[in-house]
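Incident log, structure service

09:12 report received: a user says their structure output differs between two submissions of the same chain.
09:20 pulled the input from the user's history:
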Amino acid sequence: MLLIAAAQTDEKEFDFMIKGVHKFTLLGQELWITTTHLAMWIITAFIVIMALVMRRRILHPKEVPDGLQNVAELIVEMLDKMVRGTMGKQGFKFVNYVGSIFIFILISNISGLFGLRPPTADFGVTLPLGLMTFCIVQYNNVKYNKAGAFTGLFQPLPLLFPINLIGEIATPFSLALRLFGNILSGTVIMALIYGLVPLLVKLGVPAFLHAYMDVFAGAIQTYVFCMLTMVYTQDKIGDA
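09:34 re-ran on a clean worker, output below:
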């Protein structure tokens, strides 16, 4: 019904598309800086600044920990517990990677609360995240299974090789599409809501939708992406 109403409404604008901000030419090619780039730069700058502030606070701790130091320790302990609890004794090797993508994806997912278009609503952002996980999974597959990383594609029957190969290749795309689709759908729905409801309603109703679309769904999708990353990697490592 929202889509039908949107199509019939001429005077309203539903702004959920990626916008070009600045055009430039490089090596004869026309390139654009988009809202996705700007959002990623803002989020990255925020993460770097907070990391430096927290690092300084941890290196010079107070006798009685204050709020920021407590938050930093809580985040580190939570991520460390999540990774080690899922991956066991091998978890310590992947805490930094999983923790980094967890923080980046979570902040990206909830950035709509602060007026940004979530970068994770762009497939050009989620696909590289999926490819990084794919490279880590396959690297550990070869590292721990040696030739079994290739012969395993023919198990339990050689005839299943095409299916096994497709299953491996599909991993980064399934990770990327799941995250991209869920965040984009929330972005589109919120844009439609803002475009359709009266001004007075915008002051109240969207807040509850943001709590679900950005905070709840954003946190769930972050957890799912990181959990699948750990499960895929641990599956290749096995009991090593």
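09:41 both user submissions now match this output. Likely a transient worker issue. Closing.
09:42 reviewer note: The longest helix spans residues 161-196. The beta strands are 20-26, 29-34.
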